[in-house]
Amino acid sequence: MDLSLEDRQEGERTIVVVGGEIDVYTAPKLREKLIDLVSAGQYHLVVDMEAVEFLDSTGLGVLVGGLKRVRAHDGSLRLVCTQERILKIFRITGLTKVFPIHATVAEAVAATETA
Amino acid sequence: MATVELLLSPLPVHVRTARMVGVSTARRAGLEDDLVDEFRLAVGEACGRAVAVNAEHAPDVPVKIMMRDDATGFTVEVTDAGPASEPVTDDVEDLFGEDEIDTRVALAVLAGLVDDLHVTSTPMGTTVTMRWPLPVRLP
Question: Do B98 and A68 touch (CB under 8 A)?
């Protein structure tokens, strides 16, 4: 399955809903999306990964790149993910210490509000 | 003993093909269901890394993938044509640039993912060899 990307606004936050496979071929599309959002002044991002079927280190690199971009504007990038097969690569790379990972979009949004 | 061999032009679009062929071949060989996700990711990382290496250092040389099963295990070898690279097992955040990822990240992921992993480099390139156990088949 190819990559699907949708985004919506919730107040000052942007929810990016990602589905399908994030790999060496599709990751550039996600990178473009994150760059476009930051360029448009959206600095508080919630990336909903519940519909992601595959994520490799190229995809991780794009998420880290997005995190660095929003941090440069005092922003935030939170992930929503409960799938063990996706979480595993975050644990292997130590990135669970870098990304706030939430079980639901509502939880991620609430965390952004109180941060 | 079955052998499947793939040659991929070093283009990212082909990495998915390699994953699909790999998973299909491994399932047919008897790879257990709870190892399939790990297997898919490992093949994707190894092939994605090799494609990136060849694209940079040897764009005319295909990435070679060899898969075979024997009585006790399923082996995948992925060979590139680039300079030597060593696995990294520390936290890898520093390896992630703003727009590019370091191919050492893929090796770090593989080191954390695959118990039976060997990386061998020669002047001709690097081979990543991964092996997974197969259930013992009764005669």
Answer: yes
All residues of chain A having their beta carbon less than 8 Å from the beta carbon of residue B51 are: 24
For residues A22 and A33, what is the distance between their CA atoms, to the nearest angstrom? Answer: 13
- Candidates B59, B95, B73, B79; CA nearest to B127 is B79
Q: What is the ipTM of this complex?
A: 0.89
DSSP type of residue B90: S
pTM for the model stands at 0.91
Shortest alpha-carbon distance between residue A34 and chain B (Å): 11
Q: Residue B52: phi, psi to the nearest 5?
A: -65, -40
- The 10 Å Cβ neighbour count of residue A93 is 23
A6-36: per-residue pLDDT in tens? 999 998 899 999 999 999 999 999 999 999 9
A43: which 2 tokens?
A: 């600095």
The rounded distance, in Å, linking the Cα atoms of A45 and A9 is: 10
Chain A residues whose beta carbon lies within 8 Å of the beta carbon of residue B92: 93-95
What is the spatial order of strands in the sheet that B116-122 belongs to?
A: B2-8, B63-69, B73-79, B125-133, B116-122
CB B4, CB B25: distance < 8 Å = yes
Statement: residue B100 has pLDDT above 70: no
Query: Can you name the residues that pair with A10 across neighbouring β-strands?
Result: A13
* A94 contacts in chain B (CB < 8 Å): 91-93
Check: CB of residue B13 under 8 Å from CB of residue B44: no
Secondary structure class of B60 (helix, strand, coil): coil
